[in-house]
Here is the input.
Amino acid sequence: MRFTLPPAPGFGSDCALWVAEVAALTQPDRVVWYYDTPDERAALLAQSVTEGKLTKLDSDLRPGSYLARSDAADVARVESRTFICSESESDAGPTNNWRDPISMRAELAARFAGAMRGRTMFVVPFSMGVAHSPLARFGLQITDSAYAALSMGVMTRVSREVRTRIDDGANWVPTVHSVGAPLTADTADTNWPSNTDKYIAHFPETREVWSYGSGYGGNALLAKKCFALRIASVLGRDEGWLAEHMLLVRLTSPEGRPFHIAAAFPSACGKTNLSMLQPTLPGWTVETLGDDIVWMKPGGDGRMWAINPEAGFFGVAPGTGPGTNPVATSMIERDTIFTNVALTPESDVWWEGLSPAPAALTDWQGQPWQPGTDRPAAHPNSRFTVSAGACPLIAEEYFSGRAVPLDAILFGGRRASTTPLAFEAYNWDHGVFMGATMASEQTAAAEGTVGRVRRDPFAMLPFCGYNMTDYWEHWLKISEQLDPDRAPRIFQVNWFRRGENGDFLWPGFGDNARVLAWICRRVAGYVPASPTPIGMLPTLDDLHVHGLNLTDEAQDQLLAVNDAEWAAETASIREWFDGFDGHVPPRVLEQLEQLEHRLAAVHEPGATARARH
Ligand code: GTP
Ligand code: SPV
Ligand code: MN
Here is the structure.
C-alpha cells in the first residue's frame, strides 16, 4: 500500500477535512479536539498520572505541579534530524539540512502511516500572540502526546475561539506531531513513548511542520521553534518582518523612563534569566515580556515594534535558584510541569543550583542518587513549563497583546575569552555583522559536544528557516524602513568570560542590570563610550561596579580587547565566511574589512592609547 502526506490545506480551507486526512493516515483510536479548558486540562493531567506518564508532586510543597521523565535518548533538540524542505536547495542554504519536499513527503508518509494506532490524536488550535492582535498568527497542532498537548496549553494561547476564527476563514499553519510509537495488542506503553528514528521537517513554501519520533521540547511543541522561528522567519522574509530567538524585557530608569530591550543569546545562554532579572542597581525596575522568541516589525513611525508570540516559559531548570533567579524560583512554586529534574522523598523537585543537595533523591532517570554520585541528579537540559502569567514581573502586554518599541538589541553568547562584557556597534551594518558572526560554546540544549565554540549567527543557526546569508540581507534591508535616529541601537554582551582558574569573571544574573543600565544610558545619550577596533566600550566606572568586589584580574580582563585573540577571531570569521561560497552580503564583508583595518591601525605609529584600550 502507498501512502502520501495530505496536502497542505490552502488559505481559508476546512481544517476539519485536513484533520480527517491526517487521522486516515495515522489511524489513531480516537480524535479529540483539545481546547485546554480547566476541565479538559484537569482530566488530561489525571489520565497522564494514571498512565504513569506524569508524577503528581506533593500538593502542599508544589501545588498543581507534575514531573515527567523522558526516555534517556530523547532529552533535547535534534539538529541533525531537523530538515528544511524548500523546493530549491539554495533556499535552505548551507547551514540547514535540506531535503527535497517531494521525497521527504514520501519518506514521512511511510513513518506517519499507522503511527498513532492505539493512541489518542489531540487536535490543538492555538494562537501565537493575543488572538485579536494584528500580529497574531494561528495554527493547529495535531499530536499523539498528551504531554505535548498539555505543554501547548501553557506555551501558547489554546482556545475554542481560535478554531472558530479558523473555521471562519482565518489563515493558519498546520503542524503534525507523532512520537512514532503505535500501540498494538501486545506492545505495552511506556512512560515516554518515542522512536530512535526522528524527523523535524519543515516545508517553508506550504508553511507546514511534520515532526516524528521525539516528545521533547522544541521537537514536539511545534508552535515554538518550528512555527514561531523556522516557518515564521520565512513569513517575515516574505512579508517584511523578523522572527527572532530573543528575550524581551522592559527596564524603567530611576527617572521613570521605560526602555525596551531584545536580546539574542543561543540556547541555554541566559535569555530566561535576563528577561526576569532583579536589578542590583537601586531605582531600576524590570518587567518581563518574553524569554525566547520575538516577532518584530518596523512601524510607520520608523521604530521597530516587537511582541512575544508565546504564552509560557520552557525554561532551563539547572542553575535556577533563589540566589540566581528568585523571580523564576517563585514563578515555578505551583502549576508547573517539570521534565527530567530529580524527585525528593517528599515528592518535590530538585536540581543542581536550586539549593544544597538533599541527602537522597531519585534522579531524572528514576535511579537512586546521593550527593557525591558522579552524574547530575537533574539532566543538564531539564526544564520547567509554566504560564508566563505566573511570572511576578509579567508586563501588561501579556494580557493586552500590545507591541513595544525597541530601544536596543543585544547579541551575546558564552565566550570564555575574546569577547568583552559589553560594547556597542558603530551603526546598523556593524550590528548586523556582530549578529552574523556571534559565536558561543555549545550547551546541553541540543545534541552535540558541550563546550565546543561554534558560530551561531543571531542565535538562529538551528532556527532560521531559509538561507542564512539571505537572512543577513533581510536584516540589512529592514533598516531601510527604520528612522536612523529611532532604530534600536545594537550591542554585544558576554556574561561568560573566564579567568585563569576557569571561574567566571562577571557575577552575572542580577548584576547584569549594571550593563543594561549602561545600555539604556547610551540610548538616552547620557554617557560617552570609548571607540576601539571592535566597537564602543564602557569603562568599569560606567558600569557602576563599585561594591561588587571584582578581582584585579576581573577588573583587568572584563573589558579587555586582546590583540592576539582578535587576530584569531577575524581569521576564523574570514574562514567561516568563505564557507558561504561568495554569498555573504557585501555590506557584511565590508564590516569585516573595516574591523581588520581598525585592528591593524592600533599598531601603527601614532595610534592612541585609548584606541588600543
Ligand atoms: P533556552 O531556553 O535554551 O533558549 O535558554 P536561555 O537562553 O533562556 O538560558 P537560561 O536563562 O535558561 O540560562 C541557561 C543557563 O545559564 C542556566 O543554567 C543559568 O543559570 C545560566 N545563566 C544565565 N544567566 C547567567 C549569567 O548571567 N551568568 C552565568 N554565569 N550563568 C548564567
Ligand atoms: C532552545 O533550545 O533554544 C530552547 C529549548 O528554547 S527548545 O524548546 O527545546 O528548543
Ligand atoms: Mn531557546
